[in-house]
Every structure is written in C-alpha cells, then in structure tokens.
Specification:
heterodimer; A: alpha+beta; five-stranded antiparallel beta sheet; two-stranded antiparallel sheet; 7 helices; 9 strands; B: elongated; Ribosomal_mL46_NUDIX (chain B)
Chain lengths: 295, 293
C-alpha cells in the first residue's frame, strides 16, 4: 500500500506491473512487416482536455440559452402544393421530378431545440492547396509536412479506423492551363476529439493574437442572403496566410526546415443544421475565443 | 447575431398582461347575477408585479483535478500511445549534435523510463564522462531559460481562509453571486433582483438592476435576451402577486460593492452552498438552473 502511494506520488504515469512476457513470436503484417498484436489496440484520451471541459462547463449552457427557440407541440408537416412523384404512374415513372419552387436547401428549418442537439464542434478541417503542385507534385511535400506538424495525425493513428491522417486532394475538373483531373493539388486533414481542441487552443492562444492587422474573422454584410446553402450548413471557415503559419509553435520551432510555407483554410464543422445554422456555429466558435468582426 | 430576432425579446406589454388576465375576461363575460352586482363590484385582479433577477456566474478558472481512476486511465492510454507512436523524425526537427537534440534525447529517455520501467531502455553507447557532460550542459541551458519556476498552487488563499467574498475561491467550480437583503423584516439570501419599468425590455432591466444593486465596479455579460427561469414567490396578503424572471450572466472582471443600503452583504457560493443558504421555496425554483459542479 505504502509502495503504491509512494509510486503514485513520485510519477505522473502510474505503472501497475511489468508488461507480460511475450512467449510466442507475434504474427507479422504481410505488407509492413510490423508485429501484429493479438487484440485490437485503440488509444483514447490520454490527458484531461481543457477546452472540452470549457465547452461542457460553460459554453454548452450559454449556447442552449442563446439558441433556444420555443415551440409548442409538434411541428406541422410542410404544405404539399403539387402532386408528389408517384413511381407507379407510368407518366411520371421515368421523368425528372424536380422539387416544387426550386431547391429547398436554404429553406430547411432548424431542428427543434433539444438538450441533445445543442450546437457542438464535430471536427476541424485544415485544407491547403498548393498551386505549384500542378507543375511538380513534389511541391506538395512541405504542405504535407506542415499539416503533419500542426495536427500530429497519421493514417489510422492509435488504432482508430476513422482517423484518416493527411489526405491528398486531387484535381476533379479540367481547367485549361491549370488543373487536370487526378493530379495531386492539395492536402487536408480532419481533426476530431482531443486533437481538435488542442489545435483550437494553439490557434487562439499563439497564432491569432500575434497576427498584425487581424481584428477578427470578417462577417458577411447584414444584407446578405440568409438562405444560401452555406448559411444552413453550420460550418464556419476562414483562411490563414503563409505568414501566419509560422506563428504556430509546432512550425516555429524548426521553421527553417520548410522550404515554403503555404496558407491554409480552417473549417470548423459543427452539428448545426437548418436556417441560422452558421450563426449558431459562429456563436460556438466565438465561445472558444475566435473573434468575429463586421465591416 | 442570434438575438437579432425581435420575437425573442420579452417585452412587458399587453400580450403578457392578457395572458394573466384570462380569468377576469371569462368572469366578466358571464352574466352577472343581480344580487352580486351591488355588493361586489367587478374586481379587477391586480397585475402581477414583474421583477428580474440575475444569476451572476463565475465560470471555473482551473481545470478539474482528475480522480485517481481518471489518472490511472490517462496514464495507461498515454503508455499505449507511447508504445504505438510513429517513429519521431529527429533529423527533421534537430540539427545533429546540437544541445537541443541532447536535451530532447535525455528527456525522452526519462519519459520512456517512467512509462515502461528501467529494464526497457537500451544502454547508451557513450562514455560516462560524456553522459555527465551532457547532463550538465542541459542543466545549464535550463537555468538560462529560467525553467523550473514553481507553479501556482491549485488551492487559493481564499480557500484556506474560506473567504466567501473572493472570486478566486473554488477555482474548479461554478460560483454564483447571492446577496443578503432584508425582506418583510427578515434577512434573507437571494440573487440580486429589481423591478421592471413599463415598456422596458427584460434583459435591459436585468442589466440595469444588476448595476444598481451591485455597483458598477464589475464587467459583466448577460447571456442572451430570454430569461432562463422563473420564480413565483408566495403572495403576501396585501401586496399583489409577483413574478421573478432569472437571467444568466457571467462576471469577467471586477467585484461586487455592497453599499449596505440595497444589499447588506454578498457571497460567491457553489451549488451546494446555495442550497443551504437560500429559502427552500426559492431553492425549488433555481436548483435546476445552476450547475452542480
């Protein structure tokens, strides 16, 4: 007992016992040649997460109060103004059936306010496009290394199949003299969970305060349309120029190792949907101290 | 941004009054019997008296101390991560043979030893003198960089003295402001509150009342425009019925000033402390609004 308590006091990492002895040689992965453990090993949270705690102790309550819309009873079904598509009807069977009154994407109502769908951060996506990569794809390497240093993610890291690491973006269309389909042109990485909050903390504490002439992410003018697809999608995006990337401590420590830094787009993806989703997403992101200004 | 929608502002206006006066309308629509008329003239029920109260919150300023179980879990996960991590690209981050690389290697060996035990590490293939020289150089570097400064203790002086007026107490918990006032000849504790003037918006009245009661020596922010809760005190025999709407607010800086006129005293209390301080009927209305931790 005394030994255990002494150990717990002296070390931050508590070891309980020595690792089991390996009697039999582990199976090797046919491709990588790496030893394969007999069980699936998944790593989870390895430290308390400050910003996640901040979300749960403070932001969540406030966002619920700010975004709550009172509704009495169940919602009425949307009005049907024209006959619906009937697959049995030989007339309409193979005909195009566009929605009445044009696309309804921007007019989708927000789901009813419940404790379960309080706006929350699902993931942060970092995305960079390197123009020179069209001529020579090796120009992508610094951008990939930059994203790697910023996010620390790698393919299926920690045994998690949903972690995709740094992904290469390829051209989709053919644009004369610029993009051809299939050529690597950019890189992106999705951050979730603890890594996402760590990145957000670094961004708001080390980078944004050190940017000159940056008062905040510029909001669209008040007169802008409120039912475009982007306003109902609950994603907040902004970009950082190459000069700002050097302020990240992960990059700053060996900035000479990068031949060229590339700017990137940061997308904060939230669970908000429907009318006013982007406003709710902005309220959440500003709660993590990302400033917004209106010109 | 969010509160642009005017319908979410609660205006003290005819709509609210009509809702509460429904009973009177139905009573007056009934055919009054002739015997009742002269003795009891149609009595108009008095309008409820609307008040706003502010739940002024000091959010946690420290991260929560993990429990023993959480610590063990985190350390286990950290060791798995350490065992499975990708190879570290030394040559990308450090120039060969620099002091920074030496420091990193020394620290890394220390961390490996902590995680997997002394038997796990391979022996360094350098002489003992060289190893000692490395350690000395790294120590000198640490001194130059001013490392090894002591961290602030997680328990503030206010916790030791149990100073309930300090905003630094209980850094890991949500604290709420309660004030002491004399009501009906009795000293009670409640949230700061005040009346709403006619035509005033509730959230504006709440802001105004907070400044009037607690002084303007603090920086606060009221969350949203809509109230977060309601309390109906038991009506006194002579005074009209009253309704108290609660608004949530955060304190950013400053401190309350108790002037002795409006409020006699104030305290920053946690959920459990408020339960033991306020009146039971008041507690029933507010207990679900407050954070338990």
């Amino acid at each position: 007992m005394s030994q255990v308590s002494r150990k717990a006091k002296g070390f931050s990492l508590t070891r309980f016992q020595r690792a089991p002895r390996i009697n039999r040689a582990l199976a090797r992965h046919p491709k990588t040649g790496l030893p394969q453990p007999p069980v699936k090993i998944v790593t989870r949270e390895f430290a308390p997460c400050r910003l996640e705690d901040h979300y749960h102790t403070t932001l969540k309550d406030d966002l619920m109060y700010m975004t709550y819309t009172h509704e009495i009873g169940e919602r009425r079904a949307p009005r049907q103004i024209r006959l619906k598509f009937d697959p049995e009807d030989p007339y309409s069977k193979y005909r195009k059936n566009p929605p009445v009154g044009g696309s309804q994407v921007g007019k989708k109502p927000a789901p009813p306010s419940t404790p379960e769908n309080i706006v929350r951060l699902e993931k942060i996506q970092l995305h960079t496009m390197v123009k020179e990569a069209t001529a020579n794809k090796s120009h992508l390497l610094p951008a990939i290394m930059q994203l790697k240093a910023l996010s620390g993610e790698s393919y299926k890291a920690g045994g998690r199949h949903a972690v995709e690491g740094i992904q290469i973006i390829r051209g989709k269309k053919s644009v004369g003299g610029w993009v051809r389909p299939g050529i690597p042109i950019g890189a992106k990485v999705d951050l979730k969970g603890q890594a996402m909050y760590d990145f957000l903390g670094t961004l708001t504490e080390f980078v944004l305060p050190r940017l000159r002439d940056f008062n905040g992410v510029v909001l669209p003018p008040q007169s802008s349309s409120s039912n475009t697809p982007s306003t109902v999608a609950g994603v907040v995006s902004f970009g950082l120029p190459p000069s700002a990337i050097g302020f990240f401590p992960q990059i700053e420590v060996n900035i000479d190792a990068y031949p060229k830094l590339s700017g990137m787009h940061i997308h904060f993806v939230t669970n908000a949907t429907g009318i006013g989703a982007q406003d709710r997403a902005r309220a959440l992101v500003s709660g993590f101290q990302v400033p917004f200004v209106r010109r | 941004m969010l509160s642009r929608i005017p319908s979410r502002c609660a205006v003290v206006g005819p709509s609210f009054r009509r809702g509460l006066a429904t009973e009177a309308t139905t009573a007056s629509s009934q055919q009054p019997s002739p015997s009742q008329l002269p003795s009891e003239p149609a009595k108009k029920p008095s309008r409820p008296h609307i008040k706003t109260a502010i739940i002024l919150n000091r959010s946690p300023i420290l991260t929560r101390t993990p429990t023993a179980f959480e610590k063990a879990y985190y350390s286990y996960q950290a060791r798995i991560r350490r065992a499975l991590h990708n190879p570290f690209p030394y040559e990308f981050y450090f120039k060969q043979g620099t002091l920074l690389e030496t420091r990193f290697n020394l620290e890394e060996r220390k961390r490996e030893r902590l995680a997997f035990g002394p038997g796990f590490l391979e022996k360094e293939d350098i002489s003992e003198e060289k190893r000692q020289a490395n350690i000395a150089a790294v120590e000198q570097l640490a001194q130059q960089e001013g490392e090894g400064e002591e961290l602030m203790p997680r328990q503030h002086e206010a916790d030791i003295k149990n100073d309930q007026k300090s905003l630094d107490r209980m850094g890991q918990r949500n604290l709420y402001l309660v004030v002491q006032v004399t009501e009906n000849g009795k000293d009670i504790w409640r949230f700061p509150q005040g009346d709403v003037e006619k035509g005033q918006l509730l959230h504006q009245a709440a802001q105004k009342n907070l400044l009037a009661v607690c002084g303007d020596k603090m920086d606060t922010w009221i969350v949203g425009r809509a109230p977060v809760g309601v309390h109906k005190p038991e009506p006194q025999s002579d005074s009209p019925e009253s309704v108290i709407f609660f608004h949530k607010a955060h304190i950013m800086a400053g401190q309350v000033v108790a002037d002795g006129k409006n409020i006699k005293d104030f305290r920053w209390l946690s959920y459990q402390e408020i339960r033991d301080t306020v009146e039971p009927s008041y507690w029933e209305s507010i207990k679900d609004i407050l954070s338990e931790f």
